[in-house]
Specification:
47% helix; alpha+beta
């Protein structure tokens, strides 16, 4: 699906009080051999969430390098600090991906993939998703009603990104936000 179609569908799913106020954006930074970029969400034109691939990968590299006892300032092409000795680095790289996402650091592709999947899921499945972006977008989805919203567990909204969207929806609708943070 083209970005313009995805954007239109995602934004059209927004709850009534936020319809037209929430927008999703993405851009690609073209370099010599890569096409990494950034995605972000705005509310009334002000950025409320940002997902940048190079920042996310830098954080993931830092976590993986530290996990294998390497200098996190070493170049990425140095595979964690020691050329030729790559033992454990890529295993840690994959584990570090979960850690960076849990900390709220997302890449552009994390965002676009999550948006696409969010359109395929029922609201119940979206609220139960392990992906914080999908859960966050579910909170501003028009399919989420007040009764289900106020019954959300603290665990469902524990992630910092999800908390942001939880408070945003509660404020926009005038609903009680509870003690979810």
């Amino acid at each position: 699906m083209r970005w313009s179609q995805l954007k239109k569908q995602v934004e059209s799913r927004t709850c009534e009080p936020l319809l037209g106020r929430i927008q999703v954006w993405t851009t690609v930074y073209r370099r010599t051999h890569d096409a990494e970029g950034r995605s972000w969400i705005t509310l009334d034109g002000s950025e409320i969430a940002s997902m940048a691939t190079l920042e996310a990968w830098a954080e993931q590299h830092r976590l993986a390098a530290l996990a294998v006892g390497r200098d996190p300032r070493a170049a990425w092409d140095d595979w964690g600090g020691v050329r030729g000795d790559r033992s454990g680095y890529w295993d840690e790289w994959r584990a570090a991906e979960d850690a960076r996402k849990a900390a709220g650091s997302f890449a552009k592709f994390d965002f676009t993939v999550a948006l696409w999947y969010s359109l395929q899921l029922s609201i119940e499945d979206a609220l139960r998703s392990e992906d914080a972006i999908i859960r966050g977008m579910a909170l501003i989805d028009r399919r989420l009603g007040k009764r289900r919203f106020v019954k959300l567990s603290a665990e469902q909204v524990a992630h910092p990104l999800v908390q942001r969207f939880y408070r945003l929806r509660a404020e926009a609708e005038g609903w009680p936000a509870g003690q979810k943070s």
